[in-house]
UniProtKB/TrEMBL annotation:
Name of the protein in question: Translation initiation factor IF-2
Lineage: Bacteria, Pseudomonadati, Pseudomonadota, Alphaproteobacteria, Sphingomonadales
Function field: One of the essential components for the initiation of protein synthesis. Protects formylmethionyl-tRNA from spontaneous hydrolysis and promotes its binding to the 30S ribosomal subunits. Also involved in the hydrolysis of GTP during the formation of the 70S ribosomal complex.
Keywords: Coiled coil, Cytoplasm, GTP-binding, Initiation factor, Nucleotide-binding, Protein biosynthesis
Region of the whole protein represented: 312 to 783 of 882
Gene Ontology molecular function terms on file: GTP binding; GTPase activity; translation initiation factor activity
Positions contributing to GTP binding: 79-86, 126-130
Family statement: Belongs to the TRAFAC class translation factor GTPase superfamily. Classic translation factor GTPase family. IF-2 subfamily.
Domain Tr-type G positions: 70-240
Subcellular location: Cytoplasm
Organism per entry: Novosphingobium nitrogenifigens DSM 19370
GO cellular component entries: cytosol
Length: 472
């Protein structure tokens, strides 16, 4: 690339680098200082290209106070498995007065918004659990304003409850405790309030400042109070955004639909997203062809805190990516191309650049065992969460190597890849297609189905420990 831009022969550049003591190959990425030295060596002028010259800089683009208007709070429900997160989400969805009137069909797009009896709006993220929450946060997407911590009145504090508390605290997001299944005769909410003290969650009844409410998804008990408490918390937070500007939204989840192409549910952070808007999202660009809300209705415009499914993206973006509306297609393509180039460069920069480092890298490699995997999941968010969770299992001795990761059914391609390297295929809420299944059986490729991330990571961690052998 550099040779091309200077209209020089690539081989000459490599030769020059060898003379400088750098053993490089033709498509290796070199650092900026080396590139500058090389450009001067060849008698050309240096022109620095910064991120801010090409990419969109949203951080410095702050809205004036006068433009800000109140927006609906965005709520995430977390808690231990089986404590009633899904039931609560469904019950809260049922309180939506709009849905009551129009009798809309529920579309699971990853988030939904309700209109309360009092006319206020609340947005709920529809993927319960803290994995998605933490994954989004790791990608710099803090979309949640309020966390509802679900604890079953008949069960008490469990490992995932504690994890959820820790994740919420780490994010600095206010929490409301919902004591679920309070209709059950064996419910003991007081015990839960006391146990929460051990984790420095002091609810109002214990003269703390964390709101708590006893609810039942089964009888509807406490739902109105919960909604009131969410609105009260939202008021304290003074949530505001400027609706009258080019839209900026966060991808909640994304997938490839056979008929409709790439789809992404986005949550508008500021501005108003309109049909026809041209945008960049992660390394993809596109134009809003249509938008659907969680009731399956077409919407022409989406303002702050409204989740919508967007059609018209060039490829599947990643959960946590920011969608930014830009002035024209040329700009959208330029930014997307620049980001793609940067992403590719990042993947190849780890190559050693001098003989010494090259040898030490080789040596290190000899002692490292690789654990290869192929990952397929139903939605992009899960794929990413799994890749990140597994990558974190890597140690100095054994490294997880993701050969391929993607969204959709397990295909022949996945099987061949796994077979060639002895890797297992991980199917998260997805199954192989007929051809792939045949290949899997014929070649005895290992297939692992999972639908809970931590169970998957536990299993892989055990296998990795086994690979290392007992002597370590
Ligand atoms: P999740 O794993 O946290 O999403 O939990 P679910 O919503 O799937 O609920 C787990 C089980 O608890 C299901 O069998 C529900 O029917 C039951 N459940 C959830 N909420 C309530 C409730 O308020 N009262 C009663 N009696 N059962 C509930």
């Amino acid at each position: 690339d550099l040779a091309n831009r200077m209209a020089e022969k690539a081989a000459d550049l490599v030769k020059a680098l060898f003379k400088m003591g750098m053993m490089v190959t033709i498509n290796q990425t070199i650092d900026q200082d080396t590139a500058e030295l090389l450009v001067t060596e060849f008698g050309h002028n240096i022109q620095r290209v910064n991120d801010s010259d090409v990419d969109i800089d949203t951080a410095s683009d702050v809205d004036a106070d006068a433009t800000l208007k109140p927006r609906a709070p965005v709520v995430t429900i977390m808690g231990h498995v089986d404590h009633g997160k899904t039931s609560l989400l469904d019950a809260l969805r049922g309180t939506d007065v709009v849905r009551g009137e129009a009798g809309g069909i529920t579309q699971h797009i990853g988030a939904y918004q309700i209109k309360t009896k009092g006319g206020d709006y609340i947005t709920f993220l529809d993927t319960p659990g803290h994995e998605a929450f933490t994954e989004m946060r790791m990608r710099g997407a803090n979309v949640t304003d309020i966390v509802i911590l679900v604890v079953a009145a008949d069960d008490g504090l469990m490992p995932q409850t504690v994890e959820a508390i820790n994740h919420t605290k780490a994010a600095g997001v206010p929490m409301i405790v919902a004591i679920t299944k309070s209709d059950k005769p064996e419910a003991n909410p007081q015990k839960i309030r006391e146990r929460l003290l051990e984790h420095e969650v002091i609810v109002e009844e214990m003269s703390g400042d964390v709101q708590d409410v006893e609810v039942s998804a089964k009888t509807g008990m406490g739902l109105d109070t919960l909604i009131e408490k969410i609105l009260l918390q939202a008021e304290l937070l003074e949530l505001k955004a400027n609706p009258d500007r080019a839209a900026e939204a966060t991808v909640i989840e994304a997938k490839l639909d056979k008929g409709k192409g790439p789809l992404a549910t986005v949550l508008v952070r500021r501005g108003t997203l309109k049909v026809g808007d041209i945008f960049v999202v992660g390394t993809q660009s596109g134009r809003v062809r249509a938008m659907l809300d969680d009731k399956g209705r077409q919407v022409k415009a989406a303002g702050p805190s409204l989740p919508v499914e967007v059609l018209g993206i060039g490829g599947v973006p990643m959960a946590g990516d920011t969608l930014t509306v830009v002035e024209n297609e040329g700009r959208a393509r330029e930014v997307a191309a620049y980001r793609q180039e940067k992403a590719t460069a990042k993947r190849t920069t780890s190559a050693p650049t001098s003989v010494d480092t090259m040898f030490s890298a080789l040596k290190a490699k000899e002692n490292v065992i690789e654990y290869p995997v192929v990952i397929k999941a139903d939605v992009q968010g899960s794929t990413e969460a799994i890749v990140n969770a597994l990558t974190r299992l890597s140690t100095d001795e054994i490294k997880v190597r993701v050969l391929n990761s993607g969204v959709g059914a397990i295909t022949e391609g996945d099987v061949t890849l796994a077979q060639a390297t002895g890797a297992p295929i991980i199917g998260f809420n997805v199954r192989p297609n007929a051809k792939a299944r045949e290949l899997i059986e014929r070649n005895k490729v290992r297939l692992k189905y999972h639908d809970v991330i931590y169970q998957l990571t536990d299993e892989i961690a055990r296998e990795m420990a086994g690979e290392l052998g007992p002597e370590r």
